[in-house]
Amino acid sequence: MRETAERIRNVLFITALIVSGYFALFGGRYTTADLIRIQREMRSESEALAGVEAEIETLRSEIDSLRSDDVALERRAREAYGLIRDGEILLRFVPAGEEARAEQ
């Protein structure tokens, strides 16, 4: 009788472990696979955010430079809009194969 009760107790304990293990892996609102995927996505998004923040910092420093440094502002205007001073000649170099587009 004691052996039977102990055997039943062991079977119930093992069954409870299996059920709780299954629930831990696949039950509830999010499965363990979902949590792992979400953590991976969070790492990826954090890296992307760090890249965007670095780009923002670069742009802020460029804005500060353009606001405070007339030489930097002139250089930027010359590069972006092809501006020249009186008496200067603007030369544009076109890579081979793009002559047709440059003429339009």
- Give a count of the beta strands, DSSP E runs of length 2 or more: 0
Helix amount, in percent?
A: over 70%
The ordered H/E elements are HHHH
Number of helices: 4
Concise structural overview:
The protein is mainly α and 104 residues long. It contains four helices and no strands.
Topology diagram in text:
Elements: H1 2-26, H2 32-68, H3 70-81, H4 99-103
Helix pairs in contact: 2-3
Please name the defining characteristics of this protein.
104 residues, mainly alpha
Task: Please provide a written account of the structure.
There is one protein chain. The protein has helices at 2-26, 32-68, 70-81, 99-103. It is 76% helix and 0% strand. Helix 2 (32-68) crosses helix 3 (70-81). The termini are far apart. It has 104 residues and is mostly helical. The relative contact order is 0.04. It folds into two domains: 1-30; 32-85. The protein is built from four helices and no strands.
